[in-house]
Amino acid sequence: MRKLIAFDDDTLDKLTQLARDRMGTFQELADEAFADLLKKHGIPVDLKDALRKSAGLSKAATQKKSKTGKTPA
Fold first, then answer.
1. How far apart are alpha carbons 43 and 49 in whole angstroms?
2. Rounded to 5°, angle at Cα 62 from 59 and 64
3. Report field, pTM of the whole predicted structure over 0.70
């Protein structure tokens, strides 16, 4: 899906130069930036991350149950 994002000229120039310096593309920079933003807010980026987060929550609930002997509320 394509969406338009507006950047001022100076920011666009710096991002384009950063992509060149890293031998990558502007799209790779955008993918990395948005993945970092989602991670920062605890939103899984892909199925693998969602499963890992789900397994972590299940593990934490199981550990809490085993310590107290009760099911977590």
1. 9
2. 110
3. no
